Amino acid sequence: MRCLKSFERIVARDLDRQTAEIRILIVVVNRFNALGTAAIIRVA
Question: Please, is 25 exposed, middle or buried when counting C-beta atoms within 10 Å of its C-beta (0-12, 13-18, 19+)?
């Protein structure tokens, strides 16, 4: 939940739209985390 605090507040007023908005924010945060994670490749 603390990751969502870095975004602005939820704009939608309807509960279904709020749920969709939160899910979109979670996808965005997960994507940024995936981009920032180093890929570990075994060499030997």
Answer: middle
User: What are the residue boundaries of the structural domains of the chain, listed by start?
Assistant: 4-36
Q: Smallest Cα–Cα separation from 22: which of 37, 33, 32, 11?
A: 11
Q: What is the pLDDT of residues 27-36, one digit of tens each?
A: 988 888 888 8
How far is C-alpha 27 from the geometric centre of its chain's CA atoms?
4
List % helix, strand, coil for the chain (3-state, nearest 5). Answer: 55, 0, 45
**Which pTM was predicted?**
0.61
